[in-house]
Design a protein that fits this description.
By secondary structure, this protein is an alpha+beta fold. It has a single domain (5-136), classed as Small Protein B, Chain: A (Beta Barrel), CATH 2.40.280.10. 30% of the residues lie in helices and 35% in strands. It has helices at residues 23-26, 41-48, 96-107, 138-161; strands spanning 5-6, 15-19, 27-37, 52-53, 58-62, 65-69, 72-73, 90-93, 111-120, 126-135. The longest helix has 24 residues, at 138-161.
Amino acid sequence: MAQVKSSSKSDPNYKVVAENRRARFDYAIESDVECGIILEGSEVKSLREGGANIAESYAAVEDGELWLVNSYIAPYKQAKTFQHEERRRRKLLISRKQLSDFWNATQRKGMTLVPLVLYFNHRGMAKIKIGVAKGKKLHDKRETAAKRDWSRQKSRLMKDHG
């Protein structure tokens, strides 16, 4: 199960349910947009318990609509009769202008739509942040890892000698 994080004590409704941490390593994110997501009742209750994974999922524009494909929402134990499919396609809610921008972005070579974070906003509504991303090459990933390691070493040195 995913760990549920809360952003602040003043806002009890805001909760990060699932985060795609690998996306920032594998992709160069150009821009991101907050989208609504159409869910069934048992899916919402399962998300509130923290049972979701968006690491293997992606978003796609099909027939003038935006879909979240291959995202996992764990089954809700108390829903016996009206259980949801764990890996079904879920429709994302977005304005027409943003949809056309996404369509144009995915038509460029190497661009894809990657889910970054799934959360409940301050009003308690389930939202997902979708990023327009370009896949990194192996040498770019190595460069990112080297920068991250160097910043860790710098902070350790400053802590030891500071």
